[in-house]
Structure formats: structure tokens, C-alpha cells
């Protein structure tokens, strides 16, 4: 994964936490719920399923990529390269698909 990633969560289709890079499970569950909400909002805004979302703020960015089984979300530093982070997220999802 990109060195700019601060934390990451793997989320099930209902928004539940599957796995996390963080020791704080409560914080991870909140991030999982927010990632799920972000994807739901993106789906509504685009009138259909969205496979990836990037949200930039002054202090950093949130990236979410998903497939049929999981959404993989991360918080990254402000100067993270979006294409690289999304590529990394998609590669992890593909690896998970291959391990099933």
C-alpha cells in the first residue's frame, strides 16, 4: 500500500467492519460506517453503483474502492497520489477475490 495511507478498513456490503489496520476498533467501526455512507451517497448521486470514490479535504483524503464482496477504504495524507492509492485498493480487492 502507499506510504501515504494513515489507516485502512475492509468493509462488508452492509457497512460492517471486516478488518482494519488500526488498533482502535471503535474508530475503525466509525470509519467503516462512514465509508459505507460515502459509497451509498455516491451511488445515489450517480444514479447507479460506483466502484470508487475519492474525497479530498484540506487535511487529507478518503478513498474507497469496492467490488461485489467488500469495500476497502483508507484515509491518506493530503499529498497522496489518488491514482496510486486507488490502484493499491483495487489490487488488494483483487487479491482477496483470488483467495476466496
Summarize the structure.
The chain is α+β, with helices and mostly antiparallel strands.
- The structural domain count equals 1
The first-level CATH class name: Alpha Beta
The radius of gyration is: 12 Å
Strand arrangement within the widest β-sheet reads: 2-1-5-4-3
Largest sheet: 5 strands, antiparallel
- The helix-and-strand class reads alpha+beta
Shape: globular
The mean pLDDT is 92
Tally of individual helices: 2
Task: Write down how many β-strands occur, each being a DSSP E stretch of 2 or more residues.
Answer: 5
Low-pLDDT regions: none
Please indicate the percent range of residues in DSSP E strands (runs of 2 or more).
Answer: 25-35%
**Can you tell me the CATH architecture?**
2-Layer Sandwich
Name of the CATH homologous superfamily: Dynein light chain 2a, cytoplasmic
CATH-defined fold name = Beta-Lactamase
Distance between the termini: 21 Å
Topology pattern, helix = H, strand = E: EEHEEEH
Fraction of helical residues: 25-40%
Defining traits:
single chain, 100 residues, alpha+beta, Beta-Lactamase, 2 helices, 5 strands, 39% helix, 30% strand
